[in-house]
Amino acid sequence: MTLSADPADRGHRDEQQPRATAPESATLHHALAGTGGLDTLLRDLTDRAVLAVEGAEACSITVRRDGRLLTVAGTSGLPSGLDQCQYENGDGPCVRAADSDAEQHAPDLSQEDRWPTYAAYAHSRGVRTVLAVPLAVDGETDAALNLYATTEGAFRGSRTVARAFAANASDAINAALSIERERASAGDVRTALLSRSVIDQAIGILMAQERCTAQTALDTLRRVSQDANIKLRDLCGDLVARTTDGASDRASNEASDGASHGRGGASRRRASQRR
Description:
Elements: H1 7-16, H2 22-25, H3 28-32, H4 38-52, E1 58-65, E2 68-74, H5 82-89, H6 93-100, E3 104-106, H7 116-124, E4 129-134, E5 143-149, H8 159-210, H9 214-228, H10 232-274
Antiparallel strand pairs: 1-2, 1-5, 3-4, 4-5
């Protein structure tokens, strides 16, 4: 998909959705921190950036994860492969902004000589101007907000607004990341509690089977876990499952035997009555 180069289209879009001013952009981290997860937040940020920054027609967010750069969100008007071309070549405005933590501005890609391969590709997709602004994201080594336009010099009067938006976007992302980490920590606590419960059940089973103390049962489980190279909670979970299944099978068999004896007794009583 390529960007729309029709100024009338852009004018119509601006009439329908007025651009945000810098003061409005300053409340982003309050408005967005409570959205439905980090992915939703990032997509919303790219949409808001196009409205906030005069001249912007598409936006993406680049982040380095596990040693490689990738696009974690982008507007629907972003041409496919526009960021990937930079990642594959290891250079381009988005890559350099993320790597160097310095703003990169290409006002006319047809005249750009810093990234000739990328410039030629982006220009072929209808992109004429690129502005990449670093994002200060906690826990991420590199990140950038990337803005695109089909007109030459589209960001000459709006780079200050773009920087302010990027700063507030960083706050919003960091607030969302903090919430995500708190949720993950809560999940870790729940997992730990479940693991503790399973281990306690396994200790109780061994105490009953071996007639030993709780400490002896725990030491035995730990030794078997180490010898078999199996996590303690997995070993305990297997013991509890096998014991529970065995108890269920015994109960089922006893119920079946009881029913069978009951049917036999009834048959014998009927036979005796007929005689």
